[in-house]
Amino acid sequence: xxxxxxxxxxxxxxxxxxxxxxxxxxxxxKKTPDEWSKQEILGHLIDSAANNHQRFVRAAGDxxxxxxxxxxxxxxxxxxYQQSSxxxxxxxxxxxxxxxxxLIERLPDDVTSNYCNIGTQEPVTLEFVVNDYLRHLxxxxxxxx
Length: 145
Fold this sequence. Notes:
By secondary structure, the protein is mainly α. The chain has helices at 2-20, 24-27, 38-61, 72-79, 86-106, 126-144, and strands at 65-67, 115-118, 124-125.
């Protein structure tokens, strides 16, 4: 799990400079009313960190933990990320991900095969969830940078 944590840490650090240089008019721009702005995408990545934080900790403690899916559109709508400060969101995102990297590094090897039941999907291992978090992070960062 150390390698995955290091990869997440590298992805975060590489993205930070480019994200910090973005201008308000660029991060708030919505190409269509139904599409997320870059600021809303960053908010979604914070939501992803929060949801996965729960999964990492609970699956490590009680294998086969049951988790709800989350309605990403509703989370973004309710939190109104367009009204937030880009700098504050960026700082929260970076700190939260650095913390998750520390957590992932501390997960004992014997819990990585614990299962997570997320919604009605087939159960997946904690290791899969951590790897999928990295995949998801890269996917959305490609939209941001």
